[in-house]
Structure formats: structure tokens, C-alpha cells
Amino acid sequence: MPQQTVHKVEVTPQSARRTNSFWSRMIRQRQLILMSIPMVLYILLFAYGPIWGWLMAFQSYKPGFPILEQTWVGLEQFRFLFTDDSFIRVLRNTIAMSLISLILGFVTAIGLALLLNEIKQTGIKRLIQTVSYLPHFLSWIIVTGLVSMALSTEGGIVNVVLMKLHIINEPILWLGEGKYFWGIVGLTNIWKEVGWNTIIYLAAIASVDPSLYEAAEVDGAGRFRKIWNVTLPGIRPVIVILLIMNVGWILNGGGFDIQYFLGNGQVLDWSETIDIFVLKYGLRIGNYSLGVAAGIFKTVVSIVLLYCANIIAKRLGEERLI
Amino acid sequence: MQTVRKKIKAEPLLFHTFNYLIMLFVVVVTLYPFLNTLAISFNSGVDTTRGGIYIWPRVWTLKNYEAVFLTGKVFDAFWVSVARTVIGTAVSVFLTAMLAYTISRKEYMFRKPVTLIFVLTMYFSAGLIPSYFLIKDLHLLNNFLVYILFPGAGAGLISAFNMLVVRTYIYTLPESLVESAKMDGASDFKVFMSIILPLCAPVLATISLFTAVGQWNSWFDTFIFASSRQELSTLQYELMKLLSSSMNSNANPNMSSTAARDLATMVTPLSIRAAITIVASVPILIVYPFLQRHFVAGLQLGSVKE
């Protein structure tokens, strides 16, 4: 980004004291303030205001009484969470599905971007891109609906193809067995987002200095050598930035909607994530305190992870996110 | 010598064949579920249960769509979805652009804190239950306004990501435009309205698409905050109710013949589901090709480090 220099010369009377200049700046910039502060107040109320509710995690909250008149239980809710088998399982599911989605997502998006970059016919390339971006815009309800149809035992395409290829002899109830669930979540994520995720990589690939390829060619490098030694190092900063961003979302479990819609009684032990746990305890069972505690755990861990990833990236001399 | 040349030529050919095969696979895998659903939505529900419908209907019918629209629920929900998408997008895009303008002004004294407060919201959430209590205390439960105001699955009034995208775009505009307008005595609001906003048209198209898609696809806020008022139900929420009732029957072998037992009627849960899936995705499919070149450019802008 070309940095624009500020030409505006701020004339402040020399005699003006610091406080005076603060207030006079405020008056001078009153329009900028009026244009932004209402939105700041809005976001403070809607996004930061609910932090007040975190107090519930240290109480045994009963609906109907003001929050400050509840019974305080200290860290009891957190202690219960971490000794509760079901929460440990939920945590395992969350991290496993995040990692699977993260790794599969990165590898496939970078791979597809590299392959797309090798297609020189613009029309065909554009067509493939148009098709591959499409699922990104569909809601998770639609996507999981399509997935469950494709995996169905009654003429679902996955079973049909696998049977035609004689890989399996009878239809598999993909969504009825826990051992398949994580993989299905990973693949569904890829199906929806892989095309979309190539956009950034393609932009990064396009900005690699062409003279590097020419130099590599002079040295006798083939297609794969050029990809390995020029393209991939060239897009490394982008990969690192995206990795950092994604690390912050590791307790999202690869999305909430997929597990919510594809999960069912038979795969509960494999499909339940923190978000679903919160929903279940909070709004269905009515144990608000436990739900809030799990939510706090998730938020705090996410921020710590993001912060650590950011520091590691700094140490490695990579670009940082914040 | 000849064999060497052949080898050099054979390598690209092999590679390109392999590459095109992979691309074909990607395209087929992406499109097939869609075409399959489209075919099922136009196929007689009873006939579909016999299986073997791939991308072309066997027994054409419009009954599924009739059933979808005749229930009335879906029709009303469609309009709620349209309303929240149009209003939510217009309000959010305008306010996001205005905020982006203020934080693009280098002289603005609160530029850094304002930016930080919004960027943090990209990574941090107070959680579902506290948010629910807030919405309840603000008397926004079962209120249309929650669709516009709640900064969740939709976008809320401001999307931090979109704000950064617009700000980056404003940086690319010549500063002298703002300077000379201010020289002529234009206020910041006037500069924003008459200079920045028109010039930002391409990037506003991008964030409009992002916001509109978010609004259109949102179901969670309806589910949590507005599920007890049928007249606030959205298309995605109706679809969700339909899907979650029929999906469970799909996963459970004992119930999987529900559809078969439904022979008395022409439509089945599966065929209705297919029809409503198509109804919910058609608006996006119509808008999408026109905006493609904008969102690609926009996303690249957003990825530039602040």
C-alpha cells in the first residue's frame, strides 16, 4: 500500500497548553467523532457489553434473580468442566475437527491454487474459478443438506459410486458411525471453502516476481522445481498470516453449523463441540453458569493462542497479524 | 537427441492431462450435489424414493414447489429474508463505509482506539449465553431489529472485516481530493458523502455482497432470538426446521422408510427439502455471477496487512 503523506498542517497556537489542544482538536474533529463514536458505543454495548455476563460462570446462576444476588461458587464450574468426562470428550472433538479441517483446508487450497495457476487458458480458468467459489455463498443449512443427500444410503451418490467401483459391497451409513464423522466434517469444509480460499493464494502467486522464474529456468529448473523453490517461498508470508488467523479459531471445531446439522444421536460422542456444549447446557438444559464457563474457556484460549502465534511469527521474522 | 526432445514435450502433456483431470473432478464434485438436488426437486417425490435420480428428473412435476409455496410459511419467510437482507445490508454498508472513512483520516485523534475496538471483535466473542441475556434485557427478543443489530452470524451494523477492506480501498484514493474539498470549506461528513462514497462504489459492491450473503444465509439469530414468532421466521430457518426433521430420519435406519410409507401423497420430505434448498439458493445464484469480479478484488484488498 502506498503510504500517503499527510499534508494537513496543524496550526496550534504556541501558548496553547496540552489540554487546550486536546479539546480544540476534539472540537475541530467533531464531525469525525460524530461519525464514529455512535458506532463505537454500539459495538461496546453489543459485543463487549455481554462480558458482564461472565460473572455467571463464577456463580450458580438461577434465572429470575439479579446477577449480583446470585450464589457465588468461585471456580467450581470450571473445576466441574475439567473433571467432567463429557467435556473432555467435547474438547477432544473440537480440537480434532479443527486440526483436520485446518490442515486439509490449507493443503487443498494451496494445491488447487498452484494447479489453477498452471492453466494458461483464461476462459477455462475463469470457469473453474466461478464454479469453485460458488459453494462459499451457500448457507451451511444448504451445504449440510446436500452432504447428507450425497451420503444417504438410499441412492446417495457416494455409496453409488463406491459400489460401482466395487470398493464397498453394500451402502455405508456414513452419518451413523462416529468413526467417519471427523473426516466428513473436514471434507465438507473443503467442499465449501476450497475454491474461495484459493483467491488469496492466487493473488499472492500472481505477485511473485516473474524474473525469479526466468532465473530458475536459466538454471534448468522444471515445473515442479519452480513451484517448490520459487512459488511456495514467494507465498510464504500469506500462508503464515492465514495460519495465525486460523490458530485463533482452533476452538471453533471447524465450524458450528456442520456438527449441529450433521450430528445426530448415534455419533454424539464424536460430533459434540464446545459451541454445541454451550448451546445444550445454556439454552436447553438451563445450566447457564456451566455454559458460560465453557464459553469463557473458549474465548480465553482463542485469544491466548492468537497472541502466541503472533509472537512466534514475529520471532521467525514473518509478518504479523496485529 | 530425438528422445530427449520427446521427453521434454511429454512432461508438460502428461502434467496438463493430469491437471485438467483434477480440475474436471473439482468441477464435477462441486456441481453434482447441486444438479442432483435440482433434479430431485422437479421429480415426483414418490418416484424419487425408487432411487436412480442423478442429474435429470424422471417424472417431471412442479408439485414439490407447489407444496413449498402453498404452505404459506415459506412464502412469508421468504419476504422476511428479503427484508432483513435489503435493510440490513443498506444500513450496514453505509455505516461501515462511514466508519472506515473516519479511521482512514490520519489526523483523527481517536483513530487507533476506534480501529482496535472493532478489530478485536473479529477474534473475540463474549459468548452465546451472555449475548442472549443482553438481547433479552434490551427487549429485542422476537423483534425484527435483532436481525439488523445483533453482531453475530449476519453482520450487525458494522463488520470489522468489511471496515478494513473499505479503509484499505480509501487509502488508494488520491489524498488531494479530500484536501482540496476541505480547502473549499467542505466538512468531513460532506467530503465522505460527496467524494469518498461515490468513489468507493466498487468496494462497496464487494462488501454489499459479503453482507447480503451473511444476512440471507443467517439462521442462528432466528433460532436463538426470534423462534417463538412465526412471522419473523426466515427462509433459512424454515429450511433448517425441515432439514433437521428429515435428516435425522436419514441417519436412523429404522426410520428411513418414512418416505416410503408416505406413498399416499405425491411429495416426500426429501423432495420438499430439495425444492426448498433450491428456493433458498436461487437468489444467491442469480446475483453471484455479476459480482464475481468485485469480490475477488475486494478479498485481495482485505488481505493486505493493515
Describe the structure in your own words:
- The complex is a heterodimer of chains A (322) and B (306).
- Chain A has 322 residues and is an all-alpha fold.
- Chain A has one domain: MetI-like fold, CATH 1.10.3720.10.
- Chain A is 66% helix and 1% strand.
- Chain A contains 15 helices and two strands.
- Chain A has helices at residues 18-28, 30-48, 76-83, 85-117, 122-133, 140-150, 157-164, 178-206, 210-218, 223-234, 236-247, 257-262, 268-271, 274-285, 288-315; strands at residues 59-60, 71-72.
- In chain A, strands 1-2 form a two-stranded antiparallel sheet.
- With 306 residues, chain B is mainly α.
- Chain B has a single domain, classed as MetI-like fold.
- Chain B is built from 15 helices and no strands.
- Chain B has helices at residues 2-41, 45-48, 63-70, 73-104, 111-120, 128-137, 145-149, 160-171, 175-183, 188-199, 201-217, 220-225, 235-251, 258-261, 269-303.
- The N and C termini of chain B lie far apart (54 Å).
- The interface between A and B is large, with 107 and 106 residues.
- Chain B: It comes from Paenibacillus nanensis.
Mean pLDDT across the residues of chain B is 82
CATH superfamily (homologous) name of chain A = MetI-like
The top level CATH class name of chain A: Mainly Alpha
Number of strands of chain B: 0
Q: What is the CATH superfamily label of chain B?
A: MetI-like
Topology, please?
The complex is a heterodimer of chains A (322) and B (306).
Chain A lengths: L17 H11 L1 H19 L10 E2 L10 E2 L3 H8 L1 H33 L4 H12 L6 H11 L6 H8 L13 H29 L3 H9 L4 H12 L1 H12 L9 H6 L5 H4 L2 H12 L2 H28 L7
Antiparallel strand pairs in A: 1-2
Helix pairs in contact in A: 3-15, 4-8, 5-8, 9-10, 11-15, 14-15
Chain B lengths: L1 H40 L3 H4 L14 H8 L2 H32 L6 H10 L7 H10 L7 H5 L10 H12 L3 H9 L4 H12 L1 H17 L2 H6 L9 H17 L6 H4 L7 H35 L3
Helix pairs in contact in B: 1-15, 3-15, 4-8, 4-11, 4-13, 8-11, 8-15, 9-10, 11-15, 13-15
Pfam families (chain B): BPD_transp_1
Keywords (chain B): Cell membrane, Membrane, Transmembrane, Transmembrane helix, Transport
Protein name (chain B): Carbohydrate ABC transporter permease
